[in-house]
Amino acid sequence: MPRQTPSEAKLREIASVIPTPFHLYDAAGIRANARRLREAFAWNSGFREYFAVKATPTPAIINLLKREGCGADCASFAELKLAEACGLTGEFIMFSSNMTPASEYKLARELGAIINLDDVTHVEFLRDCAGVPEDVCLRYNPGGNFTLGNAVMGTPGEAKFGMTRTQLDEAVEALKVCGVKRFALHAFLASNTTEDTYYPTTARTLFKTARELSDDHGVEFFMVNLSGGIGIPYRPGVREADIRWIGEAVHNVYNEIIAPTGMQVRIATELGRFMTGPYGWLVTTAIHKKEIHKNYIGLDACAVDLMRPAIYGAYHHITIPSKDDLPLDHMYDVVGSLCENNDKFAIDRMLPRVDVGDIVVLHDTGAHGRSMGYNYNGKLRSAEVLLEEDGSFRMIRRAETLEDYFATTAGFE
Ligand SMILES: *Cc1c(COP(=O)(O)O)cnc(C)c1O
After folding, report:
1. For residue range 201-219, what is the model confidence (pLDDT) as tens digits?
2. What is the DSSP letter of 121?
3. Does residue 188 have its Cβ closer than 6 Å to ligand 1?
4. Residues 6 or more apart from 324 whose CB is under 8 A from it?
5. Could you tell me the distance, in angstroms and rounded to a whole number, from the CA of residue 227 to the centre of ligand 1?
6. 353 alpha carbon to ligand 1 midpoint, in Å?
7. Where do the domains of the chain lie, and which CATH numbers do they carry?
8. In Å, what is the CA distance from 358 to each residue of 208, 226, 301, 409?
9. Which among 120, 157, 122, 158 is positioned nearest to 142, based on CA atoms?
10. What are the tens digits of pLDDT across the range 166-187?
11. How many angstroms separate the CA atoms of 87 and 85, rounded?
């Protein structure tokens, strides 16, 4: 859905209370999108989205999604604790971790989370450190390349996650011995994919494999987890995923492969980017203009607030709300203040003329934005603000302070 960027006046109003830079989230946009997802899979009784907490580990966002029926997908001790603090337990938590410490399996078991085993060796590991629950999910890595048509969308063969097809057989047998009653299957084969055939193709692989495992080992499957990976259009002009079509296409594959078995298999998703990505903005102020061999705009934000451009060369759209009507006739590198030359939000970007003091908005920062941040150069991460449909707003995480920065240190004597 097209996202309306908040007006210059609204951004100035927020900035007068909560200084830039800050992450701003659109509550109504997140809610409406969560409802579209739920409707797209309404044909499947028991469907649940487990929001990938790592995308935006902010209680107010997790709670907002919880009120829309979502659970949480966690991969660490702190993420499990965060889910618990938001009132999520039991089958509302997916624990899709890898190289998992024993302490994390213990906590996942205490919370009654659905455990997604990343490797065949984890059967014994889990048994010995926390005990094996009656329901267990297995993470599948089919290897090779993942293609849609002629396009290579992902390279599972290069990925550290999941287990091979033969290891799935071994894991099922070993887990049966441990008393497991019901199984689930999971795979994450491509990231940030706006191809509508991604989920239906992944579903076909998982449904087929679940059916084979069920036939070969005489076990029941209660869930197939399509994981995350549905992308968002970071660049203008890229079409967005048609979630309604995707839900219906998965339904057709379900009717073809699962329905004839008589198994009641619920569909789970672990979307992160798709749930919140488009509904967040990093709101910044231009504080410097520098003209040397190239022309630079220096923002009050830097890569600690949004790392994706620095680490992946990712595109984030940039607008100057006060200059929406002006032509894009100036070329800039839009940069932060880190002593690192990759601290660039955009390179050779065409924008209207930018002046010091302008509010500069980075788009689609609602997922894998603040959460990836760090404290390099002693830079402190920015606040998070939730904007409601009626224009009211509230801070849902304050900016880091110097006290936070010093809190872990010792040795001043
Ligand atoms: C990162 C991750 C997700 C979410 O991925 P998105 O691309 O944000 O949808 C879901 N499941 C697992 C196991 C992940 O590691």
Report:
1. 999 999 999 999 999 999 9
2. T
3. yes
4. none
5. 6
6. 38
7. 41-271 (3.20.20.10), 278-406 (2.40.37.10)
8. 54, 42, 13, 37
9. 157
10. 999 999 999 999 999 999 999 9
11. 5
